Amino acid sequence: MKTFFLWLLSLIILLLLLLAGPAWLLLTQQVETRGSWSSANRDSAELAPLPEDYAPAVVQVYAARAFSWRGAFGVHIWIATKEAGAEAYRLHQVLSWRRPTVVSTSDTPDRAWFGNAPALLADYRGEAAARLIPRIDEAARRYPQADRYRLWPGPNSNSFIAWMVREIEGLDVALPVTAVGKDYLFGDYWAPVPSGTGVQFSLGGVFGVMFAFEEGVELNLLGLSVGVDVLRPALKLPGIGRVGMARPVIIRE
To answer: How confident is the model at residue 37 (pLDDT cuts 50, 70, 90)?
Structure first.
């Protein structure tokens, strides 16, 4: 009986530590929970080159805090593409309210995600982007769970992007620790990390470990991840994200 209570106490302490970051964001009102999605800001962050000013192909990956209370836990990620000479961008993402969930439509590439400004994770231009675009289109069409969405532990919008990045040769993106669902491996236990610089083990996106040159070391507990980046010294905390040296976004051409 004593062993059981010690195990239960350890579990409670672990849960409190995992939820400390999201709770702090909510308590300090750093995440907006009272707004309406219909009136939330969707303006461009002006991170993407305008089609009329930049003719070469572009592939960019963005992340922004999820809408409402979900933003205290993680981000929503999407891929934006523009073919050479095209007049508009296409966005590839999973939306929970759509069936099939995969949506590839023309839209503003760097617009706010219902009130939350996006951050640029990867930027490919010119020939490098041109090689990626048909691969992105093809992979989006064969996503294996387009008829299913589960907020936790996956498959969700971040599971889709992580799967896409693993499937597409030449597209390497280190996803943030706040990308809840990125560790869902669609029935597999081992997989290369999205950056292509290491490996990860995962049990249904609920428990796992990651070792990679770009991502560093991450431990996934109950779908929330904590870790450390050794290459660019930083702590990676549930909800809060990266604390320390920022990861630069390099344009690849």
So the answer is: confident
Antiparallel, parallel or unpaired: β 102-106 and 119-125:
unpaired
Q: Is residue 89 within 8 Å of 81, Cβ to Cβ? A: yes
- CB–CB of 155/186 below 8 Å? yes
- Is the bond preceding residue 100 a cis peptide, omega within 30 degrees? yes
Cis peptide before 49 (omega within 30 of 0): no
Where b means 16+ CB within 10 Å and e means fewer, 100-110 reads ebbbeeeeebb
Peptide bond before residue 153 is cis, with ω within 30 degrees of 0:
yes
Mean pLDDT value of segment 148-164 = 97
- What size, in residues, is the chain? 253
Lookup result for tokens 């610089």: 197
Question: What average pLDDT does range 206-229 have in this prediction?
Answer: 95
Q: Which residue in this structure is represented by tokens 């993106």? A: 173
Helix (H) or strand (E) holding 81: strand 75-82
Residues 110 and 61: their CA atoms lie apart, in Å, by 9
The Cα–Cα gap between 137 and 79 comes to: 11
What contacts 22, CB < 8 A, 6 or more positions away? Answer: 72, 73, 238, 239
